[in-house]
């Protein structure tokens, strides 16, 4: 059985070919800015950050215990040292450790210069000023060296990297207050269609609420993007062209939903051809075949389908990698796993399919996936229930329960 929707006068191009064309057609945007560290989460680093200090800055204890010098140990015998004082985190021991002495020390506190070892507090017995150490006490343990993590002048973080919470912690640990980041990618998005109704208004016959813009806003939630929601544009050829041209002058990317198919009121491709250029239109995936990519002047244009699941699929599989490339950050390869499919799946040969699935893992670490329900591109509820795509190749003609399939998790948490 062949997918009737894949039968065209000209064979549909594969998603891999489409991604290659996009990669060849775009280049990262220019421009940087300096931001404070507390504003840098999610931004893309534009210059490498070199550490101004050693991390750790001082030798310090890896645990609570007692700091001592290995010279005080004789032939692995038990021994007793005199307590000379305390080294607190933030308040180092101020004196000089003499032979036969030790210092009570806490995690992160500076190890006295004359000491080279720290023993866990549970391994000794303290009796007033006398501290009794067991036989065969291990030496040169539990002391963090200066620069053990990062040497002064070494690269803390290289560009281009989208800064995470952990990155901010690393930068802060070196005393870095500001970073140079790439400017935000300016993205405008809107929906097209006379049938769309704004939230808060009653539905009239034949109308539907605009779910696509709400979903796109969430999919585009990224600190490296500057977003503008341009609302809904009616199915009017001239209005669309005027909107495209105006937006192309102010934004790096335009993303539309709806109007990219072949209906009499589907003007997106025709309008893009008139005021810009169409790099490609239609790709061999399901859902999401009527996807347009092109350019209006220096602005990249993505015309996504109107059905909401097709919007999600085409954004995640095609648009998201392109936006990362435009932002100047490395594209990521989606994690894919092999799982045993517990549902029979219908499919016709001809297009690569991204079916919605529910992925689970048993106590032995084996993955199983079941269909999330109806797979129509308008069925958003099954998309909401799913936590992965079941990726079926173009030549697949369906799956029997018990077959192994490729899955693409939405996140690393199941």
From TrEMBL:
Magnesium in keyword set: yes
> Which cofactors are reported in the record for this sequence?
Mg(2+)
Pathway info: Cofactor biosynthesis; molybdopterin biosynthesis
Q: Which Pfam families match?
A: MoCF_biosynth (PF00994), MoeA_C (PF03454), MoeA_N (PF03453)
EC number(s) reported in the record = 2.10.1.1
Annotated InterPro entries = MoaB/Mog-like_dom_sf, MoaB/Mog_dom, MoCF_biosynth_CS, MoeA-like, MoeA_C_domain_IV, MoeA_C_domain_IV_sf, MoeA_linker/N, MoeA_linker/N_sf
Q: Top enzyme class of this protein?
A: transferase
UniProtKB keywords: Magnesium, Metal-binding, Molybdenum, Molybdenum cofactor biosynthesis, Transferase
Give all residue intervals belonging to the MoaB/Mog domain: 188-325
Catalyses: adenylyl-molybdopterin + molybdate = Mo-molybdopterin + AMP + H(+)
Leader peptide range in chain numbering: none
Q: What does this protein do?
A: Catalyzes the insertion of molybdate into adenylated molybdopterin with the concomitant release of AMP.
UniProt-listed NCBIfam families: Glp_gephyrin, molyb_syn
Q: Which family does it belong to?
A: Belongs to the MoeA family.
What protein am I looking at? Molybdopterin molybdenumtransferase
The organism is Candidatus Methylobacter oryzae
Organism lineage reads as: Bacteria, Pseudomonadati, Pseudomonadota, Gammaproteobacteria, Methylococcales
